Amino acid sequence: MQLDQYVNTLGRDLKTRFGSKIRKLTIDANVTCPNRDGTIGRGGCTFCNVDSFVAAQQQHLSIAEQLTLRKQELKHRNIRYLAYFQAYSNTYAETAYLKRMYQQALASEDVVGICVGTRPDCVSDEVIKMLADYQRQGKEVWLELGLQSAHDQTLKRINRGHDFQCYQQTTARAREHNLKICCHLIVGLPGENQNDYRQTLSQVIATGVDGLKLHPLHVVKGSAMARTWRSGRLKTLTLPEYVNAAVDLIQRTPEHIVYHRVSAKARSDSLLAPEWCDDKWSAIVEITRKLALSGRQGSKSMQNYEDVHEGK
User: Fold this and answer.
1) Can you give the three-state secondary structure of 148-196, one letter per residue?
2) DSSP β-ladder status, 140-148 and 111-118
3) Neighbours of 260 (CB within 10 A)
4) What pTM was computed for the model?
5) ω into residue 274 within 30 of 0, thus cis?
6) Any residues with CB less than 8 A from the CB of 301 and at least 6 apart, and which?
7) Is 116 helix (H, G, I), strand (E, B) or coil?
8) Which of 94, 180, 185, 237 is least crowded, fewest Cβ atoms below 10 Å from its Cβ?
9) What is the DSSP letter of 236?
């Protein structure tokens, strides 16, 4: 069984539209975050330590060198790529600097587009217009907004530094230029349960979204959340709990929305908990199996629609 038999995955979507396999290559643009440099806060979100996701050697290489390195690691031939600007907030810099970074990635003939990971509170109109221009030139462009939860009390608890309205406003501005939005959501945040996850999904869908990423909560070394976990005051999800939650959300997602990710892992040398997050495939295998038994993406989407309009 393959996940894309039951989920509208990014890989399946890209292959349908481009006629060949497209892979993401993770890029570090050497940017920071307004929630770390003192603009709105210091220390960042309580779950954050970007080193747990980005290889250290990438942080000192040019964009072109990183692309070459990543292609060598993958050892694939005759495929094309999306350059994924992942670490920190990749719209949080001078527009001229961002333009140089994006164009360096797009200069490679086998790179068909870019995915730009960022926060909803640091996306200027100038950056939106620049990304929209690349899209008009025929490039694949995704603006990936880290939301994590639509519940303001949760966003405050994890020191996110913005509210859900900020996400809604940024999404609206981007969609005015027909930019595709991928929303990142974390399952298992402190104080949340399945009903909270459903409400977040409902509100994100109601706002308008083209893609989704689901992440299980990781506790990693160097994060503020690590101290809470070590003191025994934070419980993380078991693999079955995460699988059940993710499957429910996928089934409540309309079929046209593209899933960029249904699980994730942290670097093993940084991961504290849960241990199963050392291997993202364990979750993907179980999610696929459960979808095959209980229904594919969208099988509960009408139920989700009713939840939105009933204010649940």
Assistant:
1) ECCCHHHHHHCCCCCCHHHHHHHHHHHHHCCCEEEEEEEECCCCCCHHH
2) parallel
3) 21
4) 0.91
5) yes
6) 251, 252, 253, 254, 255
7) strand
8) 94
9) P
Element containing residue 100 per DSSP (H, E): helix 95-106
Average pLDDT, the chain: 90
Identity at 215, one-letter amino acid code: H
Distance between CA atoms of 110 and 77, rounded to whole angstroms? 11
Indicate the burial class of 102 (C-beta count within 10 angstroms; 0-12, 13-18, 19 or more).
buried
In this predicted structure, the answer to whether residue 57 has a pLDDT above a threshold of 60 is no
Sole residue written with tokens 């292609």: 71
CA 159 to chain centre: 18
- For residue 148, what are the CA distances in angstroms to 62, 87, 187, 189, 278? 30, 16, 8, 8, 20
* Residue 49 confidence class, pLDDT cut points 50, 70, 90: confident
Give the span between the Cα atoms of 212 and 163, in whole angstroms: 19
Contacts of 202 (CB under 8 A, 6+ apart): 252, 304, 307, 308, 312
Q: What is the pLDDT of residue 53?
A: 46
